[in-house]
Amino acid sequence: MKKRSSNHRAIAGVANAKINLTLHVTGKLPNGFHEIDSLVVFTGFGDTLELEPAERYSLSTHGPYSKALPHPSENIILTALRLLEERGTGFRVNLKKSIPVSAGLGGGSMNAALALRLASDYLKCPLPTDTRKITSIGSDLPVCLTGKPSMVSGLGEKIAVLDSFPEFPLLLVNPNKPVQTQDVYKGLTKVNNSSQTPFPALGNKNDIISWIREQRNDLEPPALQLCPEIKNILSRLRDQEGCMVARMSGSGGTCFGIFQTAEQVSVAAKTIRQLEPGWWIQSTRILPA
Prior knowledge:
The protein is α+β, with helices and mostly antiparallel strands. 29% of the residues lie in helices and 30% in strands. It has helices at 76-81, 107-123, 131-137, 141-146, 181-186, 205-214, 220-226, 229-238, 262-275, and strands at residues 2-4, 11-28, 34-54, 58-62, 90-96, 150-154, 158-161, 168-174, 243-248, 255-259, 280-286.
């Protein structure tokens, strides 16, 4: 979602958090990169960005997780925007960081993707199409640029956008402990795992939930070694009334619970927050296709 401010100079939007509902690691290349097979969706919750044209690129941050961000010069928002620098306009970026950092929610790539979409909209120019340059910034940046439920494979560059996907009530829980993606991948004991089974593209909600349950997140076992609290989060989610499936997202440590109703999400959030006051807990929804 994006909007122009009243002065018609700044443009703003929400970088919706990304969820890997499934994540199968299917291979490892000689260069060390891993091949995956994953169902990716986006949520109604996210960071907020505002861009304003300026002589040079700059980034300011605020919000509950802004202090965990790298120095602005190392932030991939500015790296991504420089793909458009031949257009001759810099941008002053203001980021409200609400998504936990190193949480398996694709916050950095979503910020970069939104910045690119906002800038290209402002400049009235097409988005970058050089897959090599895009994936060099972030392997999940291509799917983040679509912002739609998608099947992702290869190194993250192969995207099949789903024609339809329903909305689901969702609860996100994180132990407030960062989990580094590279450390999780290093902990894999097997890299040539099976791919996903065929997705029920025309299935109803029950068919989709059954399919999700049959799949895996191959990064969950090594993430558990680094962050044992993930096991407790999954247990808390599965104990809640109406939770149809609970799993870790991406490389962790955020876990999600898909529920039957939004009311059940609200009750579960309140219950878990009372039991675990130190955890980050966010009620939201999966955005439909």
